[in-house]
């Protein structure tokens, strides 16, 4: 017989330790433990059995994986922390003795990353351990970039040293330079939070958020020490990633930095990229990925396939649009497109028209940015999509291709100011001191396209130059849509017309409302009592169709017992009766009001709709009963699961329904406005 | 010291002289009050007498010097005579010391009055050589307390020390007088007189102020006297020979030097640089980057590693210029603002800024990034399996109710007539008649299809009719009803006379048997009461068709007939030992099969096919073999309180209804635990019944509904029974929390009869 297994010797009880235990084991303070966890990427776990992991104690604690903590025991950083601790002790002792010189000497030796932005230790070994391959590091770059771009835009305070901010800014600009050079930015989105960018580096999609260039307000309880720990790690990480990226495209890292230009807000222009002469330019390094990352389809081809599918759908919907498109494309020497004639075949990625390549989207354009436009994001995006010449007003900083607004080579001007009405009468002598603007407010340079900034973003996301007339200064802009949303079957999509995506019931309801409105019109035309009554009746039908039906049923049940004849009367007959009654009443009312033709016209149509709606309601009710019946036969566990799933589905669908309803209302309003 | 002391003395006298002058001045001005003047005079006299007593010589010299001073200051505008007089006056006082110490004056009445001089304590204090000027005794308090008084304190005798003349009186004088030598303008707090300093004292102060040595002729840096020099003296101080260590290089020093050399070699000691330069160097040093992934080796994936989930990408509603349908309505905005920040579904409200220049900074950005970093290192991670399936696939595929027809769905006949609740209903074996019993104590028989009452008998005026059951079998129509402790057997006059006669025969057969049976006696010889008494019910009832009565010990709740129609079992839950009784109609005999039961019995029934008796206790159902007289099985439905049960016609399945709203299907072959538990009712279940021929069954509940189920039992051990809910029949009203009390199936058709607490009976077809 084997030995009896003791409780708490294996499994959950052994695999997880609480945070207090971990801190005790490592013999460090809690802040140091926090730092270690952040840098080493160690996170709490939810044990499969909390009770067992907690040794039957009911206190709520966080658990760490015991092996993670074991692994921390050998961390060289731990030694550094201890050294730091002893140094702090020495300083405090010297101060206690009143030995100021000694204390200051020790203080000079102490690493104070929170003050200087510079630690005395390096984190490169940590990065190497956390990310064994470069692709691993790229995969985790989202948070890193968002954090560093945020810190690059923060004002310096006692908790956020100016040096840290400067370093963040520099790293971010270097990274942007790489993106421009390698042209790997794919998408961008103007959100209320800031600007999202998506880049594709070595097959990895990286999405990050850059705040708008404003002073950031600190709202709520924010501990900058924790953020600082993250930033410290991220700075080192981005430094090494930048190095790797720069060397991969044959550039020297770090690039030459011109302090003078940077002082004049040169931003991207303050860096000068140099070729790496010493090392031969390595071809794109063979990608090494971890075993767990399945080799997904190339995002580019994926995007193309998506696009093709979209187009296919469109062609399915109406062939006309396709024709017009074909006509448009007619004169250009386009590559023939292979449109699938029948569904079912595989979709092959096709060669794309050379001019449509995202890298050279703005290659032939020369841009000029007016002073009210955000220069940094526009410059970055335009340059990363192939634009070589971007000029801007001199107030926006150093590094412009031209600061002369009247430069004849400018093809596009990005303007974001309203059209001024009164300024036309002013004479042009009124000089703007700030910008030395040479043009009168509404004056336009001929032969140049004026667009609002959104044009750039929409063009990038659609990979084609959008029609500039929609984006003209002062024009009502089309909605700016997120390029990151993947269309889901059945979910609401604002790009598709409403009729194609609303379910039958809603469409019917919609038409009902229309009828109502017609009724309302009628009412407006002649304000007779009868018509209003009628309207009220039909309204009542709208509001509670199911209720009424229920009542019918109940009535049938109640009276069923009394007479043999009535008990066979089923609901359909009831309905018919009701309809007949309605019809009768209508006729009567029409007679009263002295007009019968119009009502007669409206009647058959509305009747058909009424029937359709009734049928639908009945069907829905039957389905519901069926589900209820079947649900009763499920076990408790499965029923709970089912109810949960239905809850989430319902929530989503009600959200979509709300959106559709709103849109319907808006469309109707605009239609009315036009009429 | 001598010169300083004398000078001090002189100064004091100068002040006195000045004071005297001032006094004179004041006298001439007549502005001062009398008291003040008097005080001044007294003060003067004291002063002088003291001085005289101490050392006359000095006083003399002091006086003379004062005189000198006065003489020196020629341009004092006071008269010399005045001074002279004063002085002589002082001397006069001194002379008076030798004469009698009183004066004789005339008082107001003209009598003589001796006025004695004041006693001068100094005269008697001769042994106190240190006694000096009158010392102020006010102690260590600020002099400012006396600002409003003419005096500045009290001397040792309690005499007022008058304030020396100051202020306006002196101003005029001071203006005219040259500032005397050593004048400081300070007041000596001890005396209240001006504090004067001598030239030497001033000199001393000046030196101290200038940070010089206080003594003029002190040399702080005298030349060193080199006692021990490199010069070899002809006569050395020590005669010892030079030690050897003076000639050897120091080992200790060599050690220290080697330490430094080592540190320099190791780079621990660097040449000095100014701190700024060093800082800059350090910065540059840290910018060193290299290819960290030069030789990258992929690591096999670790099962325990859970990568942090990426935040969801922004949707349409996060756009700075979203489609208008995404913008919140006023109500939505209000709801969002009113909600607690932690309960909001989204942390932002969609907004349309119209153009990019109007887009402001997002004020929660830092906070969101912060909470993301908190999530990264603080949130426990767990792998969650998410089911991406259609919820409909979880539902079992049930046959449609239409396919399982026939079953009752509509109330077709309503039987009205009972006062109060109807407690029990039963359809006779032929399916023509419906018997019912209720709270009004009547048993009524109705035509099933026409709904008309055919026969009625009032069995009791107090007790309700609890159960009504027809005896099975077509040869006779006998109706049994339980009222309290009595069971009545009646033959309703509805059938043809032959059947009625046959029924009468069945009922009467037992009387002969009962007469023949010998009476049971106890050991004492007394007649022992049987468990039940069988008798004729009496005149009125017999006329109405009630022919037999059996009385047991406690009130009966259920009656269940054996399929052959000879035996029936009754249950009276309050009957303790005789709760369950089995009666034989043909012998008018009653047996108590169980001496003891492990609970209160609720219902009992014979198995439809086997010689088994099912007895439902509160929580379990026990199955007894009647032939072998033993417990066969115990079924545990797992409910709290069983209300009723019914056995499937095949005999292998059991359905149990309970007061705790549960409906349980038991497969007796399978397990003592329920096969299916159904909870479709909101209130207690009152009764359950299987149809005798169709695969349907029903239950009734206090929520006023009857539910019809399809329950198909296949005669195959491998296949479980199929249960499908079919229909909910609602129509009975709930009265006093009671709904449908009893149901019964039609023996042939799929019809069901229900008895309601609202006093109505319904037939559902």
Describe this structure in words.
The complex is a heterodimer of chains A (675) and B (765). Chain A has 675 residues and is an alpha/beta fold. Chain A has five domains: 12-116, no CATH class; 135-272, no CATH class; 357-420 and 432-437 and 444-484, Rossmann fold; 504-553 and 573-629; 634-675. In chain A, 52% of the residues lie in helices and 7% in strands. Chain A has helices at 12-15, 19-26, 30-40, 50-53, 66-72, 76-97, 100-109, 113-116, 124-130, 134-139, 141-152, 162-182, 224-248, 259-263, 299-317, 319-329, 375-384, 454-462, 498-501, 504-525, 529-543, 545-560, 571-593, 597-632, 636-674; strands at 16-18, 63-65, 185-190, 195-201, 204-210, 256-257, 271-272, 366-369, 389-392, 412-414, 449-451. In chain A, the strands form four sheets. In chain A, strands 9-8-10-11 form a four-stranded parallel beta sheet, with helices on one face. Residues 279-297, 314-335, 350-355, 423-437, 518-573 and 596-600 of chain A have low confidence and may be disordered. With 765 residues, chain B is an alpha+beta fold. In chain B, strand 23 (621-625) and strand 24 (630-635) form a beta hairpin.
Q: Which features would summarize this protein structure in a list?
A:
heterodimer, A: 675 residues, alpha/beta, Rossmann fold, three-stranded antiparallel β-sheet, 11 strands, 52% helix, B: 765 residues, alpha+beta, Methylamine Dehydrogenase, Chain H, five-stranded antiparallel β-sheet, four-stranded antiparallel β-sheet, 13 helices, 35 strands, 24% helix, elongated, disordered N terminus, Pescadillo homolog (chain A)
